[in-house]
Amino acid sequence: MYNQYLIPANTKRGKLLLGWFRPFDLALVTTGILITMVLLAFMPLNSTFVTILILAPGLISAFLVMPLPYYHNMLTVIVELYEFLTNRQTYRWKGWCYKNGEEKEK
Hints:
3 helices; mainly alpha
């Protein structure tokens, strides 16, 4: 092959459970759905508002692990957005001319 390598585009998917989920993602969805099932079993569904509140844990956890293009899932987007907004926004140049002509003295 003359030293040419072909790397598949989905090499990271092999490390994920079912090709889509990290262990934390599955734990999050499982917890949300279990909480929703317990609430459905023990709470009376008298009104629409109560029904929405009971279904909220499962729906929110499913929303957080929803796959997105260019990101892993919605939880990753929210975490990266939070880190971007809370970190320093002024970046100092540290490229090849970082010392501005100054050399180390030996």
